[in-house]
Design goal:
Length: 130
């Protein structure tokens, strides 16, 4: 490998480690659940993605070839992190918020997803008289 590629990979590893460290620190130090949710879903995901990118580039630079497994792991992490964050934020809403504190949803349903009311096909937004 060339020296320029080595320096690029080392810089990317330092950036990845920095993002991972910031995400871990935020997970430990932030007080509220919604604040804690932001740290691992954003910073740690970017850090892990950068580390996997370094590993793939290193494989290409040394001649061992492209690693499809690392690409699949990166895609899996980038797809599942927002989904898990969405479910954790819904859980936080259900456990921490009083029903009167929540804003209107714009539909016939409440914020709770545990009831079995049929949802209308279109949101029931207020109509403007023209």
């Amino acid at each position: 490998m060339t020296d320029a590629l080595d320096l690029l990979l080392a810089a990317l590893l330092v950036i990845a480690g920095g993002f991972g460290l910031i995400g871990s620190y935020g997970l430990i130090r932030l007080r509220e659940g919604m604040q804690r949710l932001h740290a691992p879903t954003k910073a740690s995901t970017v850090g892990l993605g950068a580390a996997l990118l370094v590993s793939m580039l290193h494989g290409l630079g040394t001649g061992t070839g492209f690693s499809w497994q690392e690409l699949l792991v990166m895609i899996f992490i980038f797809v599942t992190a927002p989904i898990s964050a969405n479910y954790l934020s819904k859980l936080h809403l259900h456990l921490r918020r009083a029903e009167l504190d929540l804003p209107e949803t714009g539909t016939a349903r409440d914020w709770a997803t545990f009831d079995h009311q049929p949802e209308p096909a279109e949101p029931s937004l207020p109509r403007r008289d023209t």
